[in-house]
Every structure is written in C-alpha cells, then in structure tokens.
Amino acid sequence: MSIENQFAVGIIGVGNMGSALVRGIVNKSGIEAKKIIICDVDKVKVESLCRDLG
C-alpha cells in the first residue's frame, strides 16, 4: 500500500497550534487518528499526542 492511501492529513509541528488542529480534525471531521501523520522535532510532544488520541 502506498503512503498516499494510508494517510488523509499530515501536520508538521505539534505545538499549541498543531496539536489543536489534530485534535479538532479527530473530534469534528470523522477522520481517524491513525489516518493522520504528524511530525515534530520534539519526540516527547509527538508521543504524548499519539498516546492522548489513541
């Protein structure tokens, strides 16, 4: 399966704005968290957001 078929949304940076965008997308759009790819230089932020969203 190609990466184009695996993810619906990509977010670069999961600080205050990026994490709010991801949470809003998951809570309001019906897109599953597993369909969102996120990237940040701070590994702890990425892991924390992934843990919070399941």
Task: Describe the SSE topology.
Elements: H1 3-6, E1 9-12, H2 16-28, E2 36-39, H3 43-53
Parallel strand pairs: 1-2
What does this structure look like?
With 54 residues, the chain is α+β, with helices and mostly antiparallel strands. The protein has one domain (3-53). Helix content is 52%, strand content 15%. It has helices spanning 3-6, 16-28, 43-53, and strands at residues 9-12, 36-39. β1 (9-12), α2 (16-28) and β2 form a beta-alpha-beta unit. The longest helix is centred in the middle third of the chain and has 13 residues, at 16-28. The radius of gyration is 11 Å and the shape is globular. The model has no long low-confidence stretch (mean pLDDT 92).
Key terms:
15% strand, single chain, globular, 52% helix, two-stranded parallel sheet, alpha+beta, 2 strands, 54 residues
Please give a quick description of this structure.
This protein has 3 helices and 2 strands, in the order H-E-H-E-H. It is of the alpha+beta class and 54 residues long. The protein has one domain.
